[in-house]
Amino acid sequence: MAPRSGPPDGGWGWMIVAGCFLVTICTRAVTRCISIFFVEFQAYFGQDYARTAWIHSIVDCATMLCAPLGSLISNHVSCQVGIMLGGLLASTGLILSSFAASLEHLYLSLGVLTGLGFALCYSPAIAMVGKYFNKRKALAYGIAMSGSGIGTFILAPVVQLLIEQFSWRGALLILGGFVLNLCVCGALMRPIALKEDRKTAPGLLEQEYVPEAQKQDLKRMSICSPLIKAWSHECLCYCSWKEYDFLLMPGFMVLAVSVLFMAYGCSPLFVYLVPYALSVGVSHHQAAFLMSILGVVDIIGNITFGWLTDRRCLKKHRHFCYLFAVGMDGLCCLFLPVLQTFPLLVPFSFTFGYFDGAYVTLIPVVTADVVGTSSLSSALGVVYFLHAIPYLVSPPVAGWLVDTTGSYTASFLLCGFSMIFSSTLLCFARLAKKIKRTHLRSLTNDTHSKHHIWTNGAIAYSVTGELDQKDAELLSVDTSSYSNR
Predict the structure, then answer these.
(1) Closest C-alpha to 273, from 349, 163, 371
(2) Residue 209: how many CA atoms within 13 Å on its side-chain side?
(3) pTM (2 decimals)?
(4) Of 76, 67, 59, which is closest to residue 120 (Cα–Cα)?
(5) Lowest mean pLDDT across 35-44, 51-60, 275-284, 435-444
(6) Which of the four pLDDT bands, split at 50, 70 and 90, describes residue 196?
(7) Pairwise CA distance, residues 88 & 180, whole Å
(8) Is 96 in contact with 109 (CB distance < 8 Å)?
(9) For every residue of 29-57, which 3-state class applies, written as one string?
(10) 4 forms bridges with which residues in the sheet?
(11) φ, ψ for residue 431 (rounded to 5)?
(12) CA 30 to chain centre
């Protein structure tokens, strides 16, 4: 298939968006709904907050920790194969979890196995949207990522109903069958070849304009597994020498550090919103409804922020839109401990859900702006990999604070300050970059101002050119006189 000059911005791309939409429902929405099982697990196994919270932490951690593996399979084998394999693993993990006899069993089945399956699906599907869209990229991502909110809105009350009707074991078994739809989503991910993708080592080796010496260097730097060579006539795995060069980009480094603090702050709220609501006297159905509100408003944030940041007036300011959304979520967490009734928790769910959907939509967009489309899949794998440790650590730490202090205040305050720091760090980095760029531009203007062009009729004389010529003549005279000595 001949490579395209650019993304089609439509056509089959909308089917890719639909497939990614379903992937986010089956991965992120199902992960959020695991918090509804929290009270059931705690009561059935008789464990404290911290130990029970490890289940949700391991799911999120495994999903993000193994994201580079999903990108690797997508880049060098097939996005379709990766997502289908992930769907089978995730479904197997949920089905095995329905037979769990201990928390440790859930750590392995629901945590590691299901999280690994989600990892193979999530980042490749998101990266595929970026390959099909350029001009309407933010809108496409807004629609695709809204599956997380829509899924949460629908699945939260459904999961609560399933738990009441079939117990938590039956609910997990049904979710295992539901997650098998990821295999269908994988079938939709038709690959596309772009000229920009040919910048990797295998592509450069095929180009006539690349010098022979550089081709030899690329051949030496491309490492292929002997096992894969034996498996296929063509080498399916090229470890491109440029595949991860974005890791040294200052812009990506700052974004990575910001993501670490953002991920630490956002994860505990999805784990403890329902238990917190129950602790202040909210009923089980109202607590599940709070998750539904958060999910449906998340959709509005996905689509509206995606549409707005595609407008000409905001397209250049996507980073600031992203950090504004992260900062607003941090402020919401700071105010959460004083909201202790259902009528007050409803506005919180609206606000937090909207800005959560906003920045989640902008993560791949901002990443693409920093590293480019050709490195987007690998970069997203690294970005979601960076979510892993905060997702693993933050819910148990928050649970330990709840067990130690007897309230949720310290946990929510720590989450809020972490997200605000993430936003502030990125803001200062962007301002510093802008100041540096302005300074360099002023230096360039000063240099150009010294080049005055005098014209006389059709002949133009460059003063600087004449001066440079005179300087060269004087230098040659001085050199010759020095050699004569």
Answers:
(1) 349
(2) 2
(3) 0.62
(4) 67
(5) 435-444
(6) low
(7) 6
(8) yes
(9) HHHHHHHHHHHHHHHHHCCCHHHHHHHHH
(10) 194
(11) -65, -40
(12) 17
